[in-house]
Structures are given as structure tokens and as C-alpha cells.
Design brief:
The chain is an alpha/beta fold. It has helices spanning 23-28, 91-99, 113-122, 172-182, 201-213, 225-228, 267-270, 288-303, 336-340, 355-362, 377-385, 390-403, 409-422; strands spanning 8-11, 14-17, 80-85, 103-109, 127-129, 145-148, 186-192, 216-224, 236-244, 313-316, 326-328, 344-346, 351-352.
Amino acid sequence: MSVAFHVVTIIDDTCLPYSAMAPKARRCHHGWDLKTKCASTSLKRPAAAGTSGGLNFGSRRHVATLKDNGAIIKPNRAPIIIGSDFGGICCHLMAMDLLGVSFNHATYSEKVKVCRTFVATNYPATIVQDDATHRDVNKMPKVDMFVSTAPCQPFSSAGNQKGSGDCRGLLITETLKYIQANHPKCVLLENVDNITYKKFADVLELIVVSLQAEGYAVDHTVLNTRLVGGVPMERKRWYCVGIHESCRDSKPFMWPPVNVIDDTLTLDVLVPTLGPSQWLPHPPATKKTKYNNVMQAYQDAAALGVNPYVTHVVVDGGASPKFAHSCVGYCPTLTRSRAGTFGYWDSVKGGPLSVYDMAKLMGFSGLHYSWETFMTVNQLGTAIGNGCSVSTLMKLMPEVLYAAGFLTGGQREILLHRSDVYRHI
């Protein structure tokens, strides 16, 4: 693709290149000339607002921003004992940590070694398993909350979509075996939204019926972190909540409000622009797939009257033509493969999203983790792309814990307030 762009505007009847626009003119300009062929150096954008951050996720707690002074919340049966299956880097524990809820990590299973090391370093569990299919669930410790994020590849549009025909599609049964043997007070399951499709109805029915047979009140739905977590990233995920009959009372479980978009938390806030020496108008032409995807996305944005050097256009640059897509003003769903190779291009940033950018979009930049000595940047990116939205979990956890009787109404309100505050850190 050889299209080059020359962005112009009219100021006092004079045609000026984009780099010469006054800041006010830049912000309101949406004119594109797609036919003009010129050197790519004529593509300019506003002066850099800052530089991209490093890989330090920030300080551990930010109590100064909280009205409640950030005191650790001690539930009615504190600390909450948590178990995790297929836990990855345990984003649910990051959510609990940010919320300031007292918990102990009792049992954790995960196949990927670097993820196990990450969790052992940051949220060590009493029992760690690398294979959930080889364990005696009757000898495992009982927990208050059990969280399972079973592999999504059998259901994902980026996977093989064989469902129960893929052995990984039935790994959730290992979680169900633990639940049947130990009856945690509450259960939280997460997977891709495709699991709700008719072709995977057998797996979904297996999960719901199995939980109900063990005395759980089951609610499940699809939540989009952009509309619930309040961050500018598309991430539709299926969540299933089970509250055991032994701890149910008059407290109903309620899903977090949806269609709540935070206009103050934008990509301008979360993704800093690269400095002049690093900023690029597009990927190098030698990176053919990424270059073609980005240039096509710019053309599509221009057709909508959007200037990609003023408004963020985030492109899945490494996708094949069949799956190539982009989003205007927010980030597409992060995937493990693309996040691990830094394949998301941000037009305003002038480069790919960094691991720091992706961590903020996933909602856990307010914490600091040790990882550099045992994990490469690419491995961390892969783990982030394979994780759960911490922003969504911070909205969901207070509702689950309240319905299970762990929190008072006042504690629930405090945690919901904290979930709003920490999105901006």
C-alpha cells in the first residue's frame, strides 16, 4: 500500500502543514487529503505531551486519594481464603489487593512456569499445582472463594472453536470437581464471551447445572470492561457467579451497572505520546503486515472524518487480513499472542502499546510487582493479554463478597468507591 497522507487546514486563508497548526486548530481539524502522495515525513502530529513510562507499575497503595484513608477492609470472616484454578498472574488477587481486602491465597493451579513464579513472588499460595488434572481435590484446603479462568482457546474466535471437542474445553470440570468436594462459599468463573454461543451450549449447561446441583445460586452474563470497568478498552468476557446456599441470606447478588463510560479516563490520559526522537507516523514499511493494517485503519478513520494524529486509532497490527481490525478512541481486546509481541499500534502515541500501557488498560498499574529477574518483557505482555480485566473485577468483587455475606453494606460502598478512584491511578 503506497498511500501517503498530507494533513492540511485553513488558517487565515493560508494552507499550512499539520505541524504548523495552532493547538486549537489541531484539536478541531478533521480534514484529510487521501490522494496527495508525499513523503511520510510530512505527516506530523501535535508536540509530544510526555514520554512513555517505564515498566514500574507504581507504588503499592495510593491511600492519599481515598476518602476512607485506604484502611484494609476486614470482612466478617477475615481474611478471606481464596483458591485459584488456571490463574495466570492472578488478576483477581490484584483486584482484591487494590480494593484493600484482607485475604490469604490458599491454592493455585497454573501450567505456565513464569506465571507460577510471578504469583509465587507476589501472591504466594500455600499449595501450587502445575496440572489441575492430577490432584486429589478431597485433600485440598477448603476456601471461601474459588476463582477459575479456564483456557479460552476452545471457545475463542482466535482459537480452534472446538469447544468440548478440545480437551482444554473440559478443563473446567477440574474446577467443578474441587467445588463439589469443598463447597466454597462463593465461586467466580471467567471466560471469553463466545462460550455463550449456541455451539458451546453443552459446556455452559454443564457448568450451570453442576453448580446448581451443589446448592449454588448461579448468575452469569457477559460484561465489557469498557462499559463496566470504565477503561478505554474493548474486552467482552463471560462471568459466572455462584453463591452457596450455606451463606445466602436476604442480600441479593447484583451485577455492576453497565453502559457506564468514563469520559475522564481516555487514551490521552493512559497512553503517553512518545517523544520527538521516537514518534513514528506509522510502522516501517518493511513490517509489511503491520504497515498495511495500520495504513488501512488510517484510511478507514479518514473516511469517518477522524484525524488519527488527534484521535487515537489503535490497530491490531499483527493480525492477518481476515482478522485485522482497529478501534477509534479505545483499544481493541488484548490477546495473549498480540500483547506478547507488542502488536497494537497507537496512532497518537506514534508507536506500539508498551507493556506499561497494556497494564494500565487492564487496570493494574496502581500496583508494583517483581518480575524482571524471571520474566521477559514479552512473557509479561503475553500474561497481560491472557489476563482478566482488573478494572471489571474491582467492580464485581464487592458485589460477590457482599452477596456471600463477607461484607457489610458500608464496606461494599467503600470498595465500590475505591474501584472508581483506582481507575485514575
